[in-house]
Amino acid sequence: MNSKLFNYALNSIWRKKTKNSILFFGLIFSLTLLISSLFTAYSLKNMLLLNIEAMPEITVQKTSGGRLENIPVDRVWDLADIPGVQSVTPRVWGYYFFTHRRLQNDGVNFTLVGLDLYKDEYKKSLKELTYARFNSLEDGELLLGKRALETIKRGYFEDFFDFYTPNKEQIRVPIGAVVDGLEGFEDSGMMILPQDIVRKILGVDEEEATDIVLHIPNADEVDTIKDKISQMYPDSRVITKEDLISAYNALFDFKSGLFLALFLSSSFALFLLIFEKSSGLGAAEKQEIGILRAIGWKISDVISVKFAEHAVLVLMAFAFSTIISYIYLFIFNAPILRELFYSKNELTPPFHIVPHVSIALVFGIGLLVAVLYLALVLIPIWRSSIIDPSESVR
Amino acid sequence: MIKVDNVTKTYEVNKISFNALEGVNLNVNRGEALLLRGHSGSGKSTLLSILGGLLKPTLGKVEVNGISLGKIPDDHAALFRRAHVGFIFQKYNLISDILVFDNVIAPLLPTDISFKECALKANTAMKIANIFHKKDQKVLTLSGGEQQRVAIARALVHEPLVLLADEPSANLDPNLTKDFLNEMEKIKKMGKTIVIASHDEILFNSSLFDRVITLEKGKICDFN
Amino acid sequence: MILTSATVGYLGAQSALYALALVSGVKAWQILRTWDFNKSTKEQYANEKNAYLVSTVIIFLLFFKALLAIFLIYLIDSLTPFIRAAMCGVGVLNATILGWELIFLKMALIALFGLWLKSDLKDKEALDYPLIKFKFRFFLIILFLMSIELLFDYIMIFSLETQKVVSCCSVTFSAQNELAGFISLERSFVGVVFFITALFYLLLGVASFFYKKAQPFFGVFAIFYLIVGLFFVVYTVSPYVYELPTHTCPFCIIQKEYFYIGYLFYLFLFMSGFYGIKRGFSKLFLKENGKKDIILSLIFGLIFIALSLLYTFGYYIKNGVWL
After folding, report:
1. Which chain B residues are Cβ-neighbours of A290 within 8 angstroms?
2. CB C271 within 8 Å of CB C300
């Protein structure tokens, strides 16, 4: 392939505008769908992973018969004695199901987080919140996000909210403040209360906690400490930050992979269409190839030109699709697709996805798309190039 | 220059084989102008195609400019066409939606020659064929006679020693045919060997040709 | 099985390439059965056209398989977070079944494609396709290996287990290990063995330059030289790249931290060996004489050695001691 033949190929693409436009826009459509999904998943994954960074290194829960139970608080002392553990914090939190017929699915799950007013929280944002709203919390008031407030308003609650304990006791809690800017979108379903009130609502005794979190400054020691805890308390479930990261990675990549597998199989129809379109040569094109062969072009010259035409088309379509996908993600925040990869309940706020795409990702997708498409059109190209010159010049 | 030795070309149609050419022997010297005469179906186009490396003989030997054109691979035949032979097809076979210049330069595109040099050759060829003034026009917009001149230019661009033309006057009126013959005189003076296949009587009476050969049913029946 | 978009995409691409090769294989088989260049039948003309398809497919395969091989390296590296205790691609490969075998098979296939293309070029120069039968038998062997490669691809990806605890590179490639139980893999020993091998390779190369009959031996010895070269990169050179005596890893040198220098090492070594094999192959099977490949092989070899010396001697000069 020399530059003259390449120019001929470019010229040829332009000449057959109509046929090539259909192909081009078809490719852009399906590639945009593919690339924006992968970009969205990848960005979401990275955002969540960043969120996980803020989590404790180890979370210890108690299980009984495979189910989670409240953990005795006095385990804290033994855990604090383990070398390498900087701090141990028992947490009181849980899910509270608020039901009302005016809500989607008849109800939502709030995450109740109990703050210990006299001890530092493990998470920086919660620590700051405790300081900022100390008075409110001390008075037994509820802190919640804007979305949560809107949700309870649908249930006709305005200045207070009624919780019901497992003993069907009603606890009326005045609403203290609406806190915006709680880090991350997970917090939107959060309701923050003083720890003793949460204990009452969730039925967690004084000697118990929902779980215990450990802060371990040296990441290399986490696995060893995890083993020690498991040995100390065989009934405990020990989750490390690494486990969470692996799980999230797996979940997102699984979803991406699944999506891709589905996409490929459903695109099969599109590919067949491409195959058909490439195979069926118009009379004019057949004649052109025959003429070129008759005037001295080798079969390999014709193949090079046709191949270059398709390569340029698919690479340009890929470039355009990538740009469109990036705009879709960066400017429009990936509507619809983000639901596919990350959906919670109606409390999920419209968060802003941080685009996080790497060159390797783009290159990888490009390579795979190019391979698949060009492999598909190779045989039709060959078939059109072997036209007998003598027949077409009669 | 051209040696045809006992060439037979057999076609098989619906399991019936017939000979388009049978036992043809021919010699053409360098610089000679030869007319292949005969009605349609006489085999003259087939012979011309074989001389141009577009068809392969079933039996016999063909040699053009020292190159044996028997059963050779497609690529070698293409390289032969690219270097040694200029072919003017009956229907001209130009690519209609590109410019005159692009049509003329087309045979040179796969070669290693630089674009600049290719352009020079193309311009020279167009000047010889007297179509240079239309180089930036699309072939679609040209008349029959003009299209033929483009075909001539394309056949000359790679400076072949042999020029072949198949029924060149089929789409031309007598005046244009005369113009065509004048062009051929010019080219013959350049030292090229010319072989033209035609059943047009005007050509038969032309002074261009050194020899006329008549073909009938695939066999040579008259050497003139 | 770890289902990610990269693994699905990779398997999809490999499968598509295999499908192409399979179609070509069918045509190659037909050609082998019915080829007779002297005939002017429709079937023979079809054979000649099909021969073109096979050539085109192999050029296509060579280009994209080489790219996909590099993509596979990236893929393996990207799976590191999924495998417990895996710190680089070595750990991931250890967690698979047939992962290592697959890598070597891929390298061999790329070399074989190169040799096939050489045969094809030579064949097309002549007027009567003298090497046609040899070429297509060769292609069918390649197709067989590609079938194994695809099988290994699927097995490797599907066998990936996240919970398997794997050895990292320092254990897998520990200099304490012994090759076949008795050959030492100690750094300087491997270095010396390589230099003797390289010297011998150079001498054979020079001999092949003047005595054509030496060329097949040059080609065969190139394979041995390549293998020794790989050990050399892992056991002798890589510790100097990492500046850590216990870090012997074939994978980490191609990472960003080391400026991707590993790619250069592998590239030059591979090119050096490949040209040697090509010369031997051309002489033995294509009956073709030539000297260009010998020169190229030796030049690439010298560049490879120079790079190795840059890191090894460079370290000594910088620090005054060996590792």
Report:
1. 93
2. yes
Read off the pLDDT of each residue in C23-40 and give the average, rounded to a whole number.
Answer: 89
CB spacing of A367 vs C60 below 8 angstroms: no
A292: nearest Cα among A282, A278, A306 = A306
Q: Give yes or no for a contact between A295 and B87, defined as CB atoms under 8 angstroms apart.
A: yes
Range C252-264 average pLDDT: 87
Across A282-291, A330-339, C288-297, the highest mean pLDDT is recorded for C288-297
8 Å CB contact of A300 and C5: no
CB A369 within 8 A of CB A267: no
Tell whether the torsion through CA atoms of A58, A63, A68 and A72 is positive or negative.
Answer: negative
Higher pLDDT, B224 or A273: A273
* DSSP code at position C97: S
State the pairing for strand pair A160-164/A142-144.
unpaired
Q: Which of A39, A289, A297, A371 to mutate to test the interface with C (most CBs of C within 10 A)?
A: A371
Instruction: Answer for the pair A369, C8: CB distance below 8 angstroms, yes or no.
Output: no
A245 Cβ under 8 Å from any chain C Cβ: yes
Confidence bin at A185 (pLDDT 50/70/90)? very low
What ranges in C83-214 are assigned the alpha helix state H?
89-94, 99-125, 132-159, 169-172, 187-210
Report the candidate in B144, B147, B158, B143 with the shortest Cα–Cα distance to residue B105. Answer: B158
CB hemisphere CA count around B101 (13 angstroms): 12
Here the tokens at position C224 are 């041995």
Q: How many CA atoms lie within 13 A of C5 on its CB side?
A: 27
Query: Is the per-residue pLDDT at A347 higher than 60?
Result: no
B72/chain C closest Cα distance in angstroms: 6
What lies within 8 Å, CB to CB, of B89 at 6+ separation is A294, A393, B151, B166
Tokens 């311009």, located at residue: B123
List chain C residues with CB under 8 Å of B72: 127
User: What string of H, E and C letters represents the secondary structure of B108-124?
Assistant: HCCCCCCHHHHHHHHHH
Greater confidence (C128 vs A251) lies with C128
Chain C residues near any Cβ of chain A (below 8 Å): 2-10, 12-13, 16-17, 19-20, 23, 49, 52-53, 55-57, 60, 64, 67-68, 71, 74, 81-82, 162
Q: Name the burial class of residue B78, with classes exposed (0-12), middle (13-18) and buried (19+) by CB atoms within 10 angstroms of its CB.
A: buried
Query: Rounded to an integer, what distance in angstroms lies between the CA atom of residue B39 and that of residue B58?
Result: 22
Please say whether the beta carbons of C220 and C273 come within 8 A: no
Closest CA in chain C for residue B9: C40
Amino acid at A141: E
Q: Are B180 and B146 in contact, with CB atoms under 8 Å apart?
A: no
Contact residues, chain B, for A389 at CB < 8 Å? 54
Q: Which domains does chain B have, with CATH numbers?
A: 2-223 (3.40.50.300)
Q: Give the pLDDT of residue A273.
A: 67
* A301 vs B contacts (CB less than 8 Å): 78, 109-110
pLDDT at A181: 56
Average pLDDT for residues A225-236, to the nearest whole number? 90
Alpha-carbon separation of residue C3 from B122, C7, C86, C90, C227 (angstroms): 58, 6, 18, 20, 33
Beta partners for residue A175, in sequence order: A142
Greater confidence, B6 or C80?
B6
